[in-house]
């Protein structure tokens, strides 16, 4: 570290101070130091990015790949070439080796234009995207591209009731065949058929493009409150798919009713509802608090939500397989793929981990809050509290660790400590340090603005803000050089099949271990061979069989089962003996009251 700081001082001696002042130059440098030379060897000449067996990014030669990145979004992408050149150079000098290009697929603010149902690109805007990718590649900076962000589908595309879908068709895009086909058409047109005129390569063959994201904050989990409000004919199609899922899972209406009746509600289905006829309604799909249900109706809702979570997980996996196979086989995409939904919902994360290559998540501190039903309309509200006071589900280390899935790279693809929070620079230091401790694979700051009419400190844009832009280069070197070494111990929080689909708050105090250890979620169907430094069961149930160790069995309430009934210890119950602090051994078990599963757990 002494050598690093000596180098920094030497570099600082040769740079003109006014380059740092946003009042003097439109695009100031992050630091007196040019951090670019420290990143020059990060990507050039190492082929396409891959994922190794340990769950990290590597280059073709097996060398570990890490990324300190920044987002460029919407109109900031579509600027004159000389401005792009300036911005690429500032980004390079600040030590970034990745740029995520975000929100470019719109028809009003992106590279698409309406053309009577024919997919057509706005050529001047597409050329700006081409130029960014070429110049970033020449600078040794990787590109992370999104596919579905802002696009609004239209009737001309052959989409029924398209005006009701909104930007990104959330969550319709993951289950409607027509929308999936349109996503495939766009991906092929952009990534394979289009050739970048500045380097002669399709994006699918360009080593500068290192990651692809199928969709941004989309899907049935993150939009779970919208299920009953979806537009026709999509809500009917989703309802039919829900009934087909229930019929396959339970076999008959009578078996479904019997399983849900264990909640204590003797008639859990409304008159006339039958899975064979496709008339069982879509359920309320809300994330229950980590507290006991107060009534039989509450227990029924949890049982229905558990089935809904399993249903959404299966729908997501089918979508991911379809898109992945198409991109690999028909488009020739070689780089890692992901999709981003709700980074705190284990079955959502698991659906990505099962089919795609890496996990993406977000972290914002003091993100603007809005009045009800008036998002992004003034006034905005802020707490202006210090991120160093955060704990649990608000703090960077626990919340980011909760998104990590075992043996998958983790990319924090949007993060920021928003203006006007007075401690935003401190928060960035906290995030960079704990990202290094957690051995996060990529940190992508949101965002770098280039729009000439917005020369001001923005809520998210950082390049005009000395408090954030001024520390970006130094913190990038802290992260990339592992000045904070990864934690020595690796902890996995284990979720059995039962635990994964028990749809209540997934964030617990166990995630606070991220302050000292590398933490990840490990999901398994029935049996798990533990190979982390410490495996801890999630404590939601005792379902699952564990082999090996070290293993810690945790529990949330040893006196109640998941139906909130008193536990009577009998040899016939499925579970583990656990010591009580005040007495002898006790038994914590799951008895199948809330959830139906064939086999031993259903008795």
Account of the 3D structure:
This protein has 603 residues and is α/β, with parallel strands linked by helices. It has helices at 2-12, 36-39, 81-93, 123-138, 177-193, 234-250, 253-261, 296-331, 346-355, 396-401, 424-437, 466-480, 497-501, and strands at residues 50-51, 57-58, 67-73, 98-102, 142-148, 195-196, 201-202, 209-216, 337-340, 359-365, 410-417, 442-445, 490-495, 518-523, 527-530, 534-537, 545-548, 551-552, 575-579, 585-589. The strands form six sheets. The chain has an eight-stranded parallel β-sheet with strand order 9-8-5-4-3-12-11-10. A four-stranded parallel β-sheet has the order 14-13-16-18. A two-stranded antiparallel ribbon has the order 1-2. The longest helix has 36 residues, at 296-331. It is globular, with a radius of gyration of 25 Å. The N and C termini lie far apart (60 Å). Mean pLDDT is 88; it is low at 558-564 and 567-603.
- Poorly predicted regions are 558-564, 567-603
How would you classify the helix and strand content by structural class? alpha/beta
Biggest β-sheet, characterized?
8 strands, parallel
Overall morphology: globular
Query: What's the overall average pLDDT, rounded?
Result: 88
Helix residue percentage: 25-40%
Give the spatial strand order of the biggest sheet: 9-8-5-4-3-12-11-10
Strand content: 15-25%
Count of beta strands = 20
Oligomer: single chain
In whole angstroms, the N-to-C terminal distance is: 60 Å
């Amino acid at each position: 570290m002494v050598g690093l700081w000596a180098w920094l001082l030497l570099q600082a001696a040769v740079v003109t101070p006014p380059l740092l002042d946003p009042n003097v130059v439109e695009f100031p440098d992050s630091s007196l130091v040019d951090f670019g030379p420290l990143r020059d060897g990060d990507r050039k000449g190492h082929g396409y990015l891959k994922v190794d067996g340990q769950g990290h990014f590597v280059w073709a030669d097996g060398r570990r790949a890490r990324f300190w990145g920044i987002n460029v979004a919407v109109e900031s992408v579509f600027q004159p070439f000389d401005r792009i050149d300036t911005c690429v150079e500032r980004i390079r000098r600040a030590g970034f080796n990745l740029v995520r290009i975000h929100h470019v697929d719109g028809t009003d603010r992106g590279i698409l234009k309406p053309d009577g149902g024919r997919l057509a690109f706005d050529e001047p805007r597409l050329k700006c995207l081409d130029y960014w990718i070429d110049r970033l590649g020449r600078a040794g900076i990787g590109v992370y591209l999104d596919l579905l962000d802002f696009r609004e589908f239209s009737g001309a595309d052959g989409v029924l009731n398209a005006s009701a879908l909104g930007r990104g068709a959330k969550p319709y895009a993951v289950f409607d065949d027509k929308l999936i086909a349109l996503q495939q058409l766009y991906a092929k047109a952009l990534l394979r058929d289009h050739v970048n005129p500045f380097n002669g390569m399709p994006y699918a063959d360009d080593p500068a493009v290192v990651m692809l994201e199928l969709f941004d904050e989309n899907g049935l989990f993150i939009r779970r409150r919208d299920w009953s409000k979806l537009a026709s004919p999509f809500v009917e199609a989703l309802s039919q798919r829900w009934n087909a899922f229930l019929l396959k899972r339970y076999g008959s209406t009578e078996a479904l009713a019997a399983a849900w009746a264990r909640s204590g509600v003797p008639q859990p289905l409304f008159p006339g509802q039958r899975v064979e006829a496709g008339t069982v309604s879509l359920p309320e799909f809300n994330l229950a608090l980590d507290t006991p249900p107060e009534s039989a109706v509450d227990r029924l809702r949890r049982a229905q939500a558990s089935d809904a979570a399993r249903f959404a997980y299966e729908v997501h996996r089918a979508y991911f397989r379809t898109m992945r196979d198409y991109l690999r086989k028909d488009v020739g995409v070689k780089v890692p793929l992901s999709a981003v939904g709700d980074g705190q919902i284990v079955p959502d994360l698991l659906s990505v981990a099962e089919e795609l290559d890496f996990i993406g998540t977000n972290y914002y501190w003091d993100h603007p809050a809005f009045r009800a039903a008036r998002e992004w309309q003034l006034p905005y509200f802020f707490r202006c509290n210090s991120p160093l006071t955060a704990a649990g589900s608000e703090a960077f280390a626990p919340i980011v660790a909760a998104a990590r899935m075992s043996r998958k790279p983790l990319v924090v693809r949007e993060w920021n400590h928003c203006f006007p929070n007075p401690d935003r620079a401190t928060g960035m230091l906290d995030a960079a340090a704990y990202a290094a401790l957690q051995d996060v694979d990529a940190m992508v700051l949101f965002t770098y603005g280039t729009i000439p009419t917005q020369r001001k400190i923005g809520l998210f844009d950082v390049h005009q803000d000395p408090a954030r832009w001024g520390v970006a280069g130094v913190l990038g070197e802290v992260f990339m050089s592992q000045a904070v070494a990864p934690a020595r111990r690796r902890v996995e929080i284990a979720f059995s099949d039962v635990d994964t689909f028990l749809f209540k708050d997934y964030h617990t105090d166990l995630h606070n271990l991220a302050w000292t250890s590398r933490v990840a979620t490990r999901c398994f169907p029935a049996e798990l061979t533990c190979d982390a430094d410490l495996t801890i069961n999630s404590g939601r149930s005792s379902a699952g069989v564990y082999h090996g160790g070290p293993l810690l069995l945790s529990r949330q309430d040893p006196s109640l089962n998941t139906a909130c009934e008193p536990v009577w210890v009998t040899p016939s119950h499925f579970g583990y003996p656990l010591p009580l602090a005040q007495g002898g051994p006790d038994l914590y078990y799951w008895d199948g009251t809330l959830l139906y599963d064939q086999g031993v757990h259903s008795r």
